[in-house]
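Researcher: Re-running this chain for the archive, since the previous output was lost when a drive failed. Same request as before.
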Amino acid sequence: MGALLAGEKTEFKAWEQDTPYFEGCLPIEVMAARGLNTLRFGPMKPVGLVDPHAGRRPYAVAQLRQDNALGTLFNMVGFQTKLRHGEQVRIFRMIPGLERAEFARLGGLHRNTFLNSPRLLDRQLRLKAMPRLRFAGQITGVEGYVESAAIGLLTGRLAAAERLGRPLEAPPPTTALGALVHHITGGASAQTFQPMNVNFGLFPPLPDEERYKRSHLSRKPALSARALNDLAVWLDGGRQAAA
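Model: Regenerated structure tokens:
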């Protein structure tokens, strides 16, 4: 922890000075500065893992994700950083098991450019000021590979339906994709809009929401069942419109 905080970092360029960090993808040294236990409850959380030597859950873990078929290249999950390259090698080799690691590529930060979609896009993912233009993928303000691909596919489907004269509505907000579209096109505040993953917090309440709050009933399976049913209805409607 001390090495992360004391390590030499790169400086932002003048045009980057006022760019805020995305809270869902912070540099490890920024998280470390927020408190002693921040990393072990963040990218280094050991939930679901057991140390085979000690038979108990470890204090914290560095997760390595295999990045090639040969198993010779691994990615350090959640280790985006502004540490200088030499400092990364020195500090990351302090992690047990990585003392002799060879680093094929060192970490950095990427800039996530996205629209203020609640202000600019309609429910068809069209630019309100120029409806002939649609936006797709991460630039709409969604976060995650699956979400970005899904919004891209949906945008294409909406555009094709309009071109064929068969209008198609976005999926209902009770579904995962529909809830995300609703969020980025008006459900979120334009003043505080930030990229968003799909999550149950985006779903509208269940009709009997209070019953779930008062008991130990699991709300998520009920939300999922409703979503699957409503998605099937939406898909069926889309097939009929295309017929």
